[in-house]
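Morning - KG4 inputs below, output right after.
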Amino acid sequence: MLVLGIETSCDETSIALIDGNEVIANLVYSQIQTHRKFGGVVPEIAAREHLKKLPLLFSQLVEETKIDVSTIDGIAVTKGPGLIGALLVGVSFAKGLAKRYGKKLVGVNHIVGHVYANYLAYPELQPPYIVLMVSGGHTLILKVENNLNISIIGRSVDDAVGEAFDKIARLLGLGYPGGPEIDKTAKTGNPKAFQFPRPKMYDSDYDFSFSGLKTSVLYEIRKLETGGIKELPVNDLSASAQEAMIDVLLYKVTKAAKENDISNIVLAGGVAANSRLREKLAEYSSNFNFYIPPLEYCSDNAAMIARAGLELLKEGKDDGFTLEPSPNFFEMSEIQY
Ligand code: KG4
Ligand code: ZN
């Protein structure tokens, strides 16, 4: 089945063409350079950038793949969660294409897209499995019992873990996005130099909390500065804060897997790129099988949206012109499409 996918929920403009689990093209334009000077994603600028780039990426895709658009089986677009202005650009563009080529159109839950990204990298993967979704916008533990039955069993009650990386990096005077900066500086730091809290680690639920950690880092910095330190030990602070976040993530996701009697754990989202996180998986690898899709499918992209949409198209679904963005619709325990 040939499916065209469109993703514009945050700061990546992406368009892709897949044939089943095979990715024919997955074009991603990251707006990161544009938002960097603001220290975070500016929603209105994100929407304007999508509007500028999406038609260009579509032309590029048609040119590169030589696809005759009239031969595709349908179009899948992210309907949410995400930034409303950004989502509106993708949904409107998708509606235009659906009308122009007389194609079926399905709206896809972005989180479900992240789950389906796995099949692009590991077509052999079979439910049940647990997903640790760690990005700038979400920190979730998902239980996938079968392809249509995905439940959220844990989530951050405040900041997402990527957001915590970004905020802590800012406190340490590092650049944006902060995750890769902390990852880099932590490599030469001592993860035991500072004992930061592991919030909610031993709670009985699978939820997370990361905003308190950021405050602890702030207090530590103030204490060091009040003590007259000339140069902050940025590497040790990075390594210690990173260690606290990774300890909680790995402890909780393996606990979720164990208590649900599931041995396959999939990592998704930008934070899955973290080198210390990947290194520490080894400590658990005798009891669990870890799947880490390559970053191009882990971070936001349209191929994963197309792959999730394919399931809906297979069922004969067509949202047509009734499709509307749903910016907040992951506020639920069962994920719906
Ligand atoms: O999934 P993603 O690319 O975009 C969305 O948030 O949807 O994730 C971006 C997040 C940012 O917060 C960034 O700081 C974090 O992933 N990140 C990392 C690393 N690379 C990206 N965090 C920790 N270590 C990394 N190497
Ligand atoms: Zn995402």
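Note: Residues 10, 135-137, 162, 165-166, 177-180, 183, 269-271, 273-274, 299-300 surround KG4 (ligand 1) (CB under 6 Å).

O.
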